[in-house]
Specification:
Helix content: 55-70%
Radius of gyration: 22 Å
Order of helices and strands: HEHEH
Number of domains: 1
Strand order of the largest sheet: 1-2
Distance between the termini: 48 Å
Oligomer: single chain
Shape: flat
């Protein structure tokens, strides 16, 4: 009988664990960067953007995520990049 109780407890804990884990994770805001320009152009302009975020209390990787989708001059790729950014 003790084994059955133990197995029931173990199964209950295993079932509840994913819900507890999800409930404890706080949502991190995400900023999406979408551009048809070359990555070198975007990279050179990111430091002031990050500084502005930092001054507002947001630190990339800590409490804000930045997702990049760059078409690298292939503007025909922009619609699929937008869809990917929205889905992520």
């Amino acid at each position: 009988m003790q084994r059955r109780n133990f197995m029931t407890l173990l199964a209950s804990a295993a079932t509840a664990l994913p819900f507890v884990a999800r409930a404890q994770q706080a949502a991190i805001p995400t900023v999406g960067i979408l551009s048809g320009l070359p990555s070198s152009y975007i990279t050179s302009r990111m430091p002031p953007f990050r500084q502005g975020l930092n001054e507002s209390g947001y630190i990339e990787g800590r409490n804000v995520a930045i997702e990049y989708r760059l078409a690298e001059g292939h503007n025909d790729r922009l619609p699929s990049l937008v869809a990917d950014l929205v889905d992520h």
